[in-house]
Amino acid sequence: MHASTIFGFLAAAATAVLAVPHPHKEKAAVKCPLIFDGRIKSRTLPTDFDSSSTSLFNPDNVKGSSLKWSQIVKFPKEKGSRFDNCSHKPLEVTISDESVFKTQYGFRRAGLIFAADTNTGSPASKGVKTLHFSVKQDLKRPLNLTHEYLNIWHETSDWSANQFNFQTGTIIGQDTRKLPKNTFKIMSRENKLIWQTPIEKKEWQNFAITLDFNKNTLQVYYSKGNEPLRSVTKAVPNNNAGEGQYQFGILKKPTGTDDVVNKGYQESGIDEGQIYGGIFIEDSAGGCVSL
Ligand SMILES: *[C@@H]1O[C@H](CO)[C@@H](O)[C@H](O)[C@H]1NC(C)=O
Ligand SMILES: *[C@@H]1O[C@H](CO)[C@@H](O)[C@H](O)[C@H]1NC(C)=O
Questions:
Q1: What digits encode the pLDDT tens for the residues 42-79?
Q2: Which of 7, 142, 158, 178 has its CA 20 to 30 A from that of 241?
Q3: How many domains, in total, are found in the chain?
Q4: pTM here?
C-alpha cells in the first residue's frame, strides 16, 4: 500500500473514532413537566444571583448578612451532570466564617431557594413532585465530616420541621456505626435514615426524590456518573404535610452543644464548598419520573 493511501485509511479510521456519539448526546432530557428549573445557564454570572431580576433563586436568603450571593457561588470547571446539557454549567455553593445568618451563630450556612417557591401555595409542595439534583465534591474545598451537614431539604411553612433532609457528615445523636460520616444520607421527617450511599470523590452522584403530598410517601432514585437513575427505595411512608420550601446549599452544624442554632464550636478559616448540577423539580403526576 502506498504511504498516502495508508495515511488516508488511518485518517478515515480516526474520523470514524471521532464520530462516536459526543458525550453530551447521552445526556438525559427532562421528560416530565418542569415545575422549577434550577439548572444554571452557561452565560450566568455570579452577580446574577444578587438580583431578583436575574436570579433563579431568592437573592436575599439564606446567607450571611455581610455576604452577597456573588461572593458565595462559584462555577467550577467541571463537565455538567446527567441532566445538564451544553447550555448549563455546574454551580458551587461555599461557606466561610462569614456564613452566619442573622443571629444563628452556631450554623455556617448558605442556602438557595427557588424564586417562585412561595412558603405557602407553592406548586412544588402539592400533588406528586420529584426533586432532582446531582452532587460532586470540590477536593480543594472539602467538607469536614466530623460535623453534621444539611445540604438539601424541604422545610415546613411554619419552620417547625423538615419533611426530609439530604445530609452528610456525622449526624448528631445518631449511631455512627449505622450512619458513617462519609455517606450521603436521606433522612425522614422524624430524622430516621431512609437511604445512604458513600460519597464519591470524583464522580457526579445523581439523586431524585419523589414526594407524594397526597399519599405521604417519599421515594429515592440514584445513579453515578451518567448512568440512568434507578429506584433505590420503594415509596416509603413520610409525613409530607405542612407545605414550605425547598432549599439547597450547605448548612454546617457546630459540634459540642445541644443548642446547634446559636452556640457550639466551628473552627475558623472555613473554606468549604458543595458542587451541584441538574437541579430541577418536575411533575410526577401519573408516575412520571425522568431517569
Ligand atoms: C438544554 O436545556 C434547555 C432547558 O433548560 C433547553 O431549552 C435547551 O433546548 C437544551 N439544549 C440542548 C442543546 O439540548
Ligand atoms: C474538623 O472539625 C473538628 C471539630 O470541629 C475540628 O476539631 C477539626 O480541626 C476540623 N478539621 C479540619 C481539617 O478542619
A1: 999 999 999 999 999 999 999 999 999 999 999 999 99
A2: 178
A3: 1
A4: 0.91
